[in-house]
Amino acid sequence: MTDFAAASGLGQKAGIALAATGLALTVTVPVTGPVMATPAPGQAASAVSAAPQPEVTAEAAAQIDFSRSSVVTQGDPDGKLKQLLSAQSAGSITRAASAGSLGPPLAQLATVSPFGFRVSPITGGSGDFHRGQDFAAQCGTSVLAAASGTVTFVGWHQYGGGNRVVVDHGNGLETTYNHLSSANVKMGQTVNRGDVVALSGTTGASTGCHLHFEVQVNGEVVDPSGWL
């Protein structure tokens, strides 16, 4: 019974009267509800209480500083990205912190050409700088928003991107989707992570059906693999 009272976390001290061999035993349950000691067989029962709990004090201006771990749930898949962007500009986020904060722009990702310098598939010349990451995709494959944001561009990209969609995620972070066969969104539209924004294609400077995906931070392209 005393264990039950202690485990119940009673807010005030309570007296418990126990009838034992005709004697009344009063047990005081501390506010903090510690585990009460049990008398050994043959010993007289006595009231047992835990040692007084020390007081915990803090300065009036004391602050608690902690970093809450990123929480990504089915209801809020942008949880990690929101946490990063709410605290700082995208330009100050490290690669280690940004990893996994964007969702896949296709249901299945298979890289066919990474970000960085490469041999140009158009001219065959070396030293071509690839501004994004190419993923294999048959023409007409659904292209997905990598995170929630606002569509800021839908149209033709004159520098080789063909049909292009740009989504602004805030704080300097943008994603672009290129060589599309068609777009499913309009400028100014709000999209959520995983929404179909377009269908893949081979428009613009392209040698075949695929998705050219870019991540831009403050207007400069960065390696998408550091965010996916």
Description of the molecule:
By secondary structure, the chain is mainly beta. The protein contains three helices and 14 strands. It has two domains: about 1-60, no CATH class; about 90-225, Glucose Permease (Domain IIA) (Distorted Sandwich), CATH 2.70.70.10. The protein is about 10% helix and about 35% strand.
Topology:
Layout: H1 2-7, E1 15-20, E2 23-28, H2 79-87, H3 95-98, E3 111-113, E4 116-118, E5 128-130, E6 133-136, E7 142-144, E8 149-157, E9 162-170, E10 173-183, E11 190-191, E12 196-200, E13 210-217, E14 220-222
Subunit organisation of the chains: single chain
Question: The CATH topology of the largest domain is what?
Answer: Glucose Permease (Domain IIA)
Count of the separate structural domains = 2
**Number of DSSP helices?**
3
The helix fraction, in percent, is under 10%
> Structural class, judged by helices and strands?
mainly beta
Biggest sheet architecture: 10 strands, antiparallel
Give the termini separation: 56 Å
Counting DSSP E segments of at least 2 residues, the number of strands comes to 14
Strand content: 25-35%
Poorly predicted segments = 4-27, 65-69
CATH superfamily of the largest domain: Glucose Permease (Domain IIA)
Name the helix and strand elements from N-terminus to C-terminus, one letter apiece.
HEEHHEEEEEEEEEEEE
User: Residue-averaged pLDDT, rounded?
Assistant: 82
